[in-house]
Structures are given as C-alpha cells and as structure tokens.
Amino acid sequence: MTEHTHHAQPIGAQPIGNKLKFSIILTGFILVAEVAGGLISNSLALLSDAGHVFADIVALSLSWYGVRQAERPPSTRMTFGYHRVGVIVAIVNAVSIFAIAAIILYEAYHRFQQPPEVNSLLMLLVATPGLAVNAFVAFWLRREQQSNLNVRSAFWHALGDALASIGVIIGGVIMLLTGWFLVDPIISVLIGFVIILAAWRILREGLRVLLEAAPGHVDITEMVNALNQVPEVKDIHDVHVWSVSPELHVMSCHVFIDDLSTTQAASIRQKIEDVLRERFQIKHTTLQMECQQCNSNDIFCTLTYGQSDEVDKGRK
Questions:
Q1: Mean pLDDT across the stretch 53-59?
Q2: Spatial separation of the C-alpha atoms in residues 141 and 155, rounded to whole Å
Q3: HSE on the CB side for 142, CA within 13 Å?
Q4: Which long-range contacts (CB under 8 A, 24 or more apart) does 305-313 make?
Q5: Nearest to 15 by CA among 115, 117, 132, 148
Q6: Lowest-confidence range among 88-97, 174-183, 290-299?
Q7: pLDDT surpassing 70 at residue 174
Q8: H-helix or E-strand containing 255?
Q9: In this predicted structure, what is the pLDDT of residue 215?
Q10: pLDDT for residue 135
C-alpha cells in the first residue's frame, strides 16, 4: 500500500513578479547614472558599484523569469513542475556575483599601485540616489527572500549594492575631506569581499538542492527515531529526504506495520505525516506501508546501476 500527500503552497508569481519588474526599472536608471558618473569622476568604486548594479538587473530579470516558471503546472515530462528553474537561476546569479567581484578586485589591485585622482563630489552626488534605490529594492524583497532562494539571490544583489553604495559614499567623504585617493580601491576591495560571501551562501544552498541533499534543518537520525515512536510503526527504512526547491521538502520511505485494514493503515500514515509536517517542515510525503519486512533493513537504500528486477524482488 502506497500513500502520498502534498501540501505545498507556492508563492504567487503575480505579486513577486510585479515587485521584480518595478525593481528592474528603478535599477536601470541607477545603472545609467553610475556608469556616467564613474567615467566622469574617474572613480573605480563608483564603476564597481555600477558593475554590481548591472548584475542586479540581470539577477532581477532572471529571478522574475524563475518565479514565473515555478508557477507552471506539472506535466507528463516535468512531473515535479518547474520549481528548480528558480534554483538554477539562483546559481547563475551567484556565479555572476563571483565574476563581478573578481573584476573589482583586479582593478583595485592596479589602483593600489598608482591611485588616480577622483572627483569625490560627483561621486557622492551619484552614489546617494543609488543607495536609496537599492535599499528600497532590498527592503521591498525582504519578506519573499526568506522562503525563496531565487528571490534571495536577487535580494542579495540589491542589498550588496546598497552596502557598496554606502562604501562609495564613505569613501567619497574621506577623499573630499582629506584628498586621500587610496581609499577608492580600499572601498572596492571591501565591496568585493562582501558580495563574494553572499554569493557563496547562495551557491552552496542551490547546489545542495540540485544534489538532492537532505535539507539542512532535518536530522535524519532524529526523524527516523521520531517516526519509530509512532504507535503501530515497527520500523522505518528506505528513507529518502530531499528538496525540490529550498522551500519545498519531500520525503519517501517504507513503513513496516502489522497486517491491518486500509482504514487502520491510513490512520497510521496520518500520524506519520503530522510528525513530519510539525517537527521537520516536510509537507510532501510518499509512504509505502508494508506488512512484510524487507531482507535489508537499512535506513537508506543503496541505488545501483543495472540492477535487475529479480535482484529487486529478492530484497523483499
């Protein structure tokens, strides 16, 4: 007897999509202003920030696409739907952040050797509205990013750029007051390391999803022990726990019980699902109820290539 339930409630695409589209338009204006201002003022920090703003536009656009794709229904070829499009988008965004940070650090290295003169007043005038826009975008996406890796990658692009704008403004004030132009590449290096840290966290979480690793908050041993405490459950084995997306966790397993009626088995299944949902935030489960013990009682099932049907049957 195999039962399954699914309670996933994806975030609506329309509200997030509208936020992302409006954020793209606002960020586009800042990009034009910072590129022009950076070239005229000869500020690497401002141009570095402009590079990150460009990445913001790409990230926001990809995130908008990912959110829309995740809302597409399952099909005969995509039985889990398109949730992982958003995960792939997040990974692409993270890699783009690494690339931008590398360019920033490379240019900063050359400026450390011979710091050029910077028009710090113009730098301040351009960076200030950039800070306002990026802070607004990050604040606007703060709620959605908590439960959506795709949106989180766009959020960190915007928040990282807001931090960069703060750095540019601080550097501009120091240069305006002291004429110490070495602060420009110093600020650029700090910007680079801040966004590298954010990119690594997003990349790591995205790869865990693609590799179908167990969610970080789930202790498999603790979960199996908890399920074995459910009345009438004799054993839990062949356990698989993974994430379709960072916010959608899935679990399947075999449940060894007595030879009971369908109604009694359904009651046990409901108790198991309650434990998984309330203690481990797993809302999509597939449980195979068995009244004959498998030959192999391992918690996990070792998958092998080319395994014949006869071998599979021999394990039962």
A1: 74
A2: 6
A3: 7
A4: none
A5: 148
A6: 290-299
A7: yes
A8: strand 248-256
A9: 87
A10: 85
Residue 44 CB neighbours (<10 A) = 24
Report how far Cα 222 is from the mean position of its chain's Cα atoms. 25
Residues 153, 59 contacting (CB under 8 angstroms): yes
Q: How far apart are CA 8 and CA 237, in angstroms?
A: 24
Give yes or no for residue 199 having a pLDDT over 90: no
Residue 76 DSSP class: S
Instruction: Work out the angle between the directed axes of helices 183-210 and 83-113 (0-180°, nearest 10).
Output: 160
Of the pLDDT bands very low, low, confident and very high (cuts 50, 70, 90), residue 4 is very low
Residue 254 host element (H or E): strand 248-256
pTM, 2 dp:
0.66
How much helix, strand and coil, in percent to the nearest 5, is found in the chain? Answer: 65, 10, 25
* CATH number for region 220-314: 3.30.70.1350
Residue type, 186: I
Was domain 2-210 assigned CATH 1.20.1510.10?
yes
